[in-house]
Automatic annotation (TrEMBL):
Keyword Kinase: yes
Membrane topology of this protein: Multi-pass membrane protein
Record protein name field: HAMP domain-containing protein
Principal location: membrane
Entry's localization field: Cell membrane
Domain HAMP positions: 318-370
Keyword Glycoprotein among UniProt keywords: no
Matches recorded under InterPro entries: Bact_2-comp_sensor_kinase (IPR050640), HAMP_dom (IPR003660), HATPase_C_sf (IPR036890), HATPase_dom (IPR003594), Sig_transdc_His_kin_internal (IPR010559)
One matching Pfam family: HAMP
Transmembrane segments: 12-32, 299-322
Keyword vocabulary terms for this entry: ATP-binding, Cell membrane, Kinase, Membrane, Nucleotide-binding, Phosphoprotein, Transferase, Transmembrane, Transmembrane helix, Two-component regulatory system
Length: 606
């Protein structure tokens, strides 16, 4: 499909704006959809994380409230302050620790250290174990101003107590540590540590995210993972650039950001001894899944719409441009010379009006041609005969003189063959009724001419030819090859050489055209004369009256007589303006003349 056609332009200019509008609509729709989904996701997940942080705060507050029993239980407090050596005091201590352990199902174990008598008590699986004369466990010994601290997730242990604990299996826990103070001072009476299983956080956090698509982390103030998707990372530092850049160094208690093709939403959890951050990661692909599904549907609809529009556009463009193409075909037929074409009406629109006017114009032209046709044929026939009549009469005189001299001097039978050759040439050239002959006939005429020239120049040259068999029976204008060969003997033959040659070849070029080459090894044409000859050949036309005048000026200008312009004029008269004749000097010496004409399969009457 060519760009400069109306059909192509119609298709492009209809489809292109449609495609641009559809794609722009899809882009804007997708952009607003993603923005809406992003805003909605931020709002919903911010509220969800806020509720989750409230639940985590309540859990920590509940654990902290349990740790305050040491103050509300006066007997427990006095025993811790004075020391608890007797069985009754030990029973009170165990009862209070057991209350703390049994108040929440997720409490793993409770550790108590009394400063007064350096006694440590560890309650595991409701079984108390006591050690005396041991130092407090370092993580439990709070030395900061705050009496409460939360330790991030770690594996449960025996708080440095060396005695074996039956059926003790370490598990991930987080711990609330409290320093028991002598009120109203901050002097430590003891240290209380409560290990809490991560199941307490699992019940809360599992409701905050989609475990198949999203991720969530609960981080302490140092970036250590309190809780997350991967249990192997519990208690380890989170190695993520987005945390250091967008959360830890920020002062805001909540917010969101996008990085690494994901949306991150975070919420801080603060309280006594508590500085945690809840972070949720939502992949953009999951966040925008609804928009992507809608975009996929829109693309499918767009493809269907484009197919429909393209089909309709092509049908409409073909309907509009088909009459134009038909009118173009009519004009091409007229250009080839077929004037009696049947031009049919093409409707009543503008194109139909143009077609009707064209038909009327062709009728007028045909009427004029009918009146001028016979005169044109007569003029053309006379023109061709005038061109053919320009055979050099001196050639016949010279030939007769040669034959006569030979007959007087040698008295041999060879004279007969020479006379026969001359007779053939005279009959061929003077039989003016035939204007179109076969290639074989034209070649036979050249052979007769060569036979005479061999006698004239004492066999100082050779003649050879090579023609495709199929081309011998095709037709060409009469008296074309012999004038070209004659130029060799007039202007190019070197009398001092005995190895001269003339060669004629013919081959089919394709597209129903053939090429005939006539070359020799004689003298080359001087550059100035060759340029002048080419100019005359280039500007030659079928009606060029100068070619009909055999003047001495033409002979001297071209260096080859009027033979080649004569040949070209006759070629164009018979074969049309597509006939080509070129002349070139050969590098090895000599001249080559190339003829290129259409192959004529049947004899035409001119």
């Amino acid at each position: 499909m060519k760009w400069n056609t109306i059909r192509t332009k119609m298709i492009v200019f209809i489809l292109l704006p449609t495609l641009i509008c559809i794609m722009a609509t899809m882009f804007i729709s997708y952009h607003f959809s993603t923005q809406s989904l992003r805003t909605r996701a931020v709002d919903e997940n911010t509220n969800l994380l806020f509720q989750g942080t409230r639940n985590i705060e309540s859990l920590i507050q509940e654990i902290n409230r349990l740790s305050l029993i040491v103050y509300s239980d006066s007997e427990f407090y006095r025993s811790l302050e004075a020391g608890y050596e007797d069985m009754l005091a030990n029973a009170r201590i165990y009862s209070s620790l057991n209350y703390i352990s049994s108040s929440m199902p997720d409490i793993s174990q409770v550790y108590l250290y009394g400063v007064k008598d350096s006694k440590a008590t560890l309650l595991t699986q409701n079984t108390p174990k006591r050690w005396q004369g041991v130092p407090p466990y370092p993580d439990s010994k709070i030395t900061t101003d705050s009496a409460v601290s939360l330790q991030s997730t770690h594996l449960s242990h025996s708080y440095g107590l060396t005695a074996p604990i039956p059926q003790f299996i370490p598990e991930p826990v987080f711990t609330l540590h409290r320093r028991i103070e002598r009120v109203p001072t901050t002097k430590a009476l003891g240290y209380l540590s409560i290990d809490v299983k991560l199941t307490a956080l699992t019940d809360i956090i599992s409701q905050l995210y989609d475990q198949k698509q999203e991720k969530i982390w609960l981080l302490d103030g140092n970036g250590n993972i309190v809780y997350g998707d991967n249990s192997e990372e519990f208690g380890k530092k989170l190695n993520a650039a987005w945390y250091d850049t967008n959360i830890r160094d920020k002062q805001s208690s909540q917010g969101y950001f996008e990085e690494d093709k994901a949306m991150f939403i975070y919420q801080n959890i603060e309280g006594p001894g508590l500085n945690w951050t809840l972070v949720k990661q939502i992949p953009v692909s999951y966040l925008f899944r609804e928009a992507n599904e809608a975009a996929t549907i829109n693309i499918a609809l767009m493809v269907l719409l484009l197919i429909t529009i393209t089909t309709l556009t092509i049908l409409i463009s073909f309907r509009i441009t088909a009459p134009i193409k038909q009118l173009t075909r009519y004009m091409n037929q007229v250009q080839t010379g077929k004037l009696d074409i049947d031009i049919r009406p093409m409707g009543k629109d503008e194109i139909g009006v143009v077609t009707e006017r064209f038909r009327s114009m062709m009728d007028t032209i045909n009427n004029l041609i009918l009146r001028e046709y016979k005169l044109e044929l007569t003029n053309k026939t006379n023109e061709l005969r005038a061109l053919q009549a320009q055979i050099n009469p001196h050639f016949l005189n010279n030939t007769l003189q040669i034959i006569g001299t030979l007959a007087l001097e040698l008295k041999v039978p060879q004279i007969y063959s020479l006379l026969s050759a001359l007779a053939k040439m005279m009959r061929y050239s003077m039989y003016n009724e035939e204007k179109i002959v076969t290639v074989k006939d034209e070649l036979d005429h050249v052979k007769a001419y060569i036979e005479l020239q061999k006698e004239r120049f004492e066999n100082k040259f050779s003649f050879r030819y090579d023609m495709e068999e199929a081309l011998l029976e095709t037709f060409m204008p009469k008296m074309i090859l012999q004038p070209i060969v004659e130029n060799y003997f007039k202007h190019g033959f070197n009398h001092s050489r005995s190895d001269g040659f003339v060669e004629i070849t013919a081959a089919e070029l394709g597209d129903k055209r053939m090429e005939i080459c006539i070359q020799n090894n004689g003298n080359a044409i001087p550059s100035a004369k060759l340029d002048l000859l080419r100019q005359k050949l280039q500007h030659s036309t079928r009606t060029d009256i100068d070619l009909l005048r055999n003047t001495e000026q033409d002979k001297e200008a071209t260096g080859s007589g009027i033979g080649l312009p004569n040949v070209l004029a006759r070629l164009k008269l018979v074969c049309g303006d597509s006939a080509i004749l070129t002349v070139d000097n050969l590098r090895a010496g000599g001249v080559v003349v190339r003829l290129e004409i259409d192959i004529i399969a049947e004899r035409e009457t001119i």
